[in-house]
Give the backbone structure.
Amino acid sequence: MTSAQVDTENVPEEGYERGLGSRQVQMIAIGGAIGVGLFMGAGANIAKAGPSIILMYALAGVVIFFIMRALGELLLYRPVSGSFAEYAREFLGPFFGFVTGWTYWLMWVVTGMAELTAAAIYIHFWFPEIPQWVSALAFLVVLFGVNLISVKIFGEVEFWFSMIKVTAIIGMIVIGLGVLTLGFSDAGDTATVSNLWSHDGFFPNGIGSSLMTLQGVMFAYLAVELVGVTAGESENPEKTLPKAINTLPWRIIVFYVGALLVILSVVKWTEFSAGESPFVHAFGKIGIPLAAGIVNFVVLTAALSSCNSGMYSTGRMLRDLAANSEAPQAFGKLNARKTPAVGITVSVALMGIGVVLNYVVPEKAFLYVTSVATAAGIWTWMMILVSHIRYRAAVDAGRLRASSFPAPGGALFSWVALLFLIGVTFMIAYDKDARICLYVAAGWAVALGIGWAILKSRNPQIAERRDPEFEKVG
C-alpha cells in the first residue's frame, strides 16, 4: 500500500448508504462555515468589539483551518463516520473516545436548540404575534421528518439550504460594494471605508474587549468539522474531503472577513446591537425594497440548515458509540432507509428542551445554548488536535503509514491551535455571561465519569481496547 492510498482495510463497512455526492459534500462544507453564529451572533460581537471583530473572525479562521487540516490528515488515513470519537479512541484510549463521542453529540443537541431559537426570532420579522416556542416546535418537527427519510434527502435539502446562503452572501457583498463605490440607496451618503476606523478607532473598546469576543466568534465556526462525520457516507472520500477542506480559507475570506468588511463600511458599527442580525439591519438601512425581508429569509435558512445538520450528526455519533458498546445498542440500528432513526429521534426529543427555553426565557435562550455549544465544540476540536499530534508521532516512529493529505506544519500547527483553544477557554471563564457553560461542563463531566464507571463495571474489557494498528511497529 502506498502513502497516497486510503487505508481501506481499516475502514469498516458501517452499513450506511454512501449517498452523499461530491456537490453535496462540498455544499455541506460551505454551509458549515455559514451559520447562525455569523448571521445572528455577529451583532453582539460587533457591539463589543467594533470593526476589530473582522480581525477576530480572521484570527479564529486561521486556527480553524489548522484544525481542519489536522482532521483532513486523519480522515485520509482512515475515513469513518463518527471520526472524532474514533480517532480519540484510537490515539488516546477508549475513555477519550467515549467522552468525545458523547460531547460532540451534546454539542449538536445544544446547537440545534440555538438554531431553533434563532429561526423563531427570524420569524418575528414577519409574524411578531407568533410566540417563539411555537415557531421553534414547528421547525423541529419538519426537520425531524427530513432526517428520517434518507441521507440523500438530507444531502439534497442541505445542498439547497447552503446554495441559498452562498448566493445571498455574495449578492450582499456585491450590493454593499455598489453602495460604497456608486453611492446609491439611503445609505450611500454615509457609506465609506473610513467607517472602519472613524468612530473611536478600529479597537473602540480596547483590544481586551475584542479578544473577549473570541468565544462568541468560535461558535460561528461550529459545524465546519461536519465533513468528518460525512466520511462514512461520502461516495469518494479520498477526493471530496480534501477538496472540501482546502477551500475553507476562501470561504472564511469571502463569507466572514469580506462580508463584515462591506457591512461595517456601509453602516457604522455603533448602529448594531445584540439580538438583531447585522445583515438584516444593514440592508434595511440601505433601503432597497424587500431587501431586509429577503435577507431575513436567508438567515432563516441558515439557522434551519445548521439544525438539519445537527440532527444528521447526532444520529451518526450515537450509532458510533453504540458500535463500541458505549451507548445503548438500540442506537446502533438502522431503519430500512439506512438512517439511524432511534438515535435521531432521541436527539430531536432532547432538542425539544430548546422549545421549552424559548417559552420560559426567550430573551436569554440564545445566549445560554450558544455558550454551552461552544464549550462542547472546543473539546471536540481539542481532541482532533491531540489525536493528530499522536498520529504524527506514530507516523514518525514508523508505527503507522503516512496519510495522503498531510497537514501543513505538521504537529507544530496543531500545538498552536491547541494553545489558542485553551486561551479561549480561559476567556469563557472570565466572561460572567458565558461562564454558565463551564458549570454545565462540570456537571456533564461528572455524568460522563459516572457513565464510564458503570460501563467498566459491566464490561471491564472496554477500558483495555486499543486499535491494533496503532500498536503495530512497521
Observations:
- The CA atoms of residues 121 and 127 lie 10 Å apart.
- The two ends are 13 Å apart (CA to CA).
- Confidence is low (pLDDT under 50) at residues 1-13, 467-474.
